[in-house]
Specification:
Pfam family, one: Methyltransf_23
Distance between the termini: 32 Å
Protein name: Class I SAM-dependent methyltransferase
GO molecular function: methyltransferase activity
CATH architecture: 3-Layer(aba) Sandwich
CATH superfamily: Vaccinia Virus protein VP39
Oligomer: single chain
Largest sheet: 7 strands, mixed
Structural class: alpha/beta
Radius of gyration: 16 Å
Strand order of the largest sheet: 3-2-1-4-5-7-6
CATH topology: Rossmann fold
Strand content: 25-35%
Number of domains: 1
Order of helices and strands: HHEEHEHEHEHEE
Keywords: Methyltransferase, Transferase
InterPro entries: SAM-dependent_MTases_sf
CATH class: Alpha Beta
């Protein structure tokens, strides 16, 4: 999986990323996550890894003291900056992936929404995210269920519960919830597919 090609694609998509279809799916995902985030013990920092244009995390800005949004493409972060200025948000920090890897600090909640499928070394990323998660924090993954018809050089063909469980264990995390919640036509590279939410915590 060529991360440079992936970055180039997202650079090109940034200005037109917020399509009506993506906004519709984002609204469904937001509804699925809202109650879970509200039940967190602490809400000091929300980290959104692979934030894109901020569709998922910016609506939660008023519920957390600080937001940290991270993306591979600076062009995506430019879209987030424009949104923050329009919305008057002053509690949002933006970082590229290399900048994030140099950061200290831990989050109450980490969002990883439709991002794992673009990552070459999933276990390594989960280990990095675990290092940025408070002991009582949670990681919320949204991604596609494994799909036998997907064969693409730049994306994983989705994830099964068993595969994700194994990846979590290798990264020192435990899978505390796995729930498919949304199925639609043309959802995943033109195919009918299902999204799941997975909740991860430190294993000890």
């Amino acid at each position: 999986m060529d991360q440079n090609r992936t970055k180039a694609i997202f650079k090109q998509m940034a200005a037109h990323y917020d399509s009506p279809e993506r906004k519709q799916v984002a609204a469904v995902i937001h509804e699925e996550l809202e109650q879970r985030l509200e039940q967190l013990a602490g809400r000091d920092l929300l980290l959104d890894y692979g934030c894109g244009t901020g569709l998922m995390s910016l609506p939660f800005a008023e519920h957390f003291s600080k937001l940290l949004l991270v993306d591979i493409a600076e062009e995506m972060l430019e879209q987030v900056r424009d949104k923050c200025q329009t919305l008057g948000l002053s509690n949002v920090t933006l970082k590229t992936v290399p900048e994030f890897q140099e950061l200290q600090g831990q989050a109450n909640a980490i969002l990883v929404v439709q991002t794992l499928l673009h990552v070459a070394q999933v276990e390594e990323l989960l280990e990095q995210l675990a290092a940025h998660l408070l002991l009582d924090g949670q990681i919320f993954l949204i991604d596609f269920l494994a799909h036998e018809e997907i064969d693409h050089p730049l994306v994983h063909p989705g994830f099964s519960q068993e595969e994700l469980l194994s990846l979590c264990q290798q990264a020192g995390l435990k899978l505390v919830e796995f729930k498919p919640f949304y199925t639609a036509d043309s959802l995943f590279i033109g195919k009918r597919a299902t999204l799941f939410v997975a909740v991860l915590q430190h294993s000890n």
